[in-house]
């Protein structure tokens, strides 16, 4: 005979919140656990602030990637990596900032 576990509404809410954090916030299990445990087990707000900082950086990186990919699609050249002057100008500036020739 199998046993059925019935969850209380507050337990269902916690599970739904954990799933939302995992799906929308791309939080790790440790981060989710910190938020679910609450203030009596540490500074969950610091965990959330750190996650937000990481998400902002990821958004910045994704925006740059999107800009490049859109440029590749709009560039009339057959091989933008080799022949696009706009891309060459950008990579030249990046290399110069990094101290590379």
UniProtKB/TrEMBL annotation:
Gene3D superfamilies associated with the record: 1.10.1660.10
Keywords, sorted A to Z: DNA-binding
Keyword Transferase set for record: no
Presence of the UniProt keyword DNA-binding in the record: yes
Chain ranges of the Transcription regulator MerR DNA binding domain: 12-71
GO molecular function, one term: DNA binding
Classification via Pfam families: MerR-DNA-bind
Name of the protein: MerR family DNA-binding protein
Organism: Amycolatopsis heterodermiae
């Amino acid at each position: 005979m199998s046993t059925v576990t019935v969850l209380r509404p507050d337990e269902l809410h916690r599970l739904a919140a954990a799933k939302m954090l995992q799906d929308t916030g791309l939080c790790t299990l440790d981060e989710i656990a910190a938020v679910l445990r609450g203030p009596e087990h540490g500074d969950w707000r610091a965990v959330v602030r750190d996650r937000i900082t990481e998400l902002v950086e990821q958004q910045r990186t994704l925006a740059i990637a999107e800009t490049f990919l859109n440029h590749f699609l709009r560039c009339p050249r057959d091989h933008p990596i080799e022949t696009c002057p706009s891309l060459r100008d950008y990579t030249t500036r990046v290399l110069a900032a990094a101290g590379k020739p």
